[in-house]
Amino acid sequence: MKINVIKDESNELMVEFDTSDFTVPDLIASQLLENDDVEFAGVAKDHPEVGKPRLVIKTGKKKAKDALLKALDQVDDTFSELKASVSGKK
Known about the structure:
Elements: E1 3-9, E2 12-17, H1 23-32, E3 38-44, E4 54-59, H2 64-87
Antiparallel strand pairs: 1-2, 2-4, 3-4
C-alpha cells in the first residue's frame, strides 16, 4: 500500500493512502489513540468514489512521525500474535 505525505511537521502529520478502503487507516488511527503522546488521530473521509482516506496525527511533545511508527509496530505485533494463535505456534 502506498501513501503520499501531505503534511510533515514535528507535531503534525497528514498522509493520504492510495486506496479507497478506510480499514487500514482506521485501524492505525485507533492504535494511535491508545498512545498518551497523541492528542488527535483521525481519518478524513471524503466520498469513497472520489476521495482517498487521509490519516491526520497531532502530538504534544513527541514527533508525529515517531508516533505513527510506534503504532505501526504495535499493529504488526498484534497481527503476529493473532497469526501465532491461529497457527498454534507460540
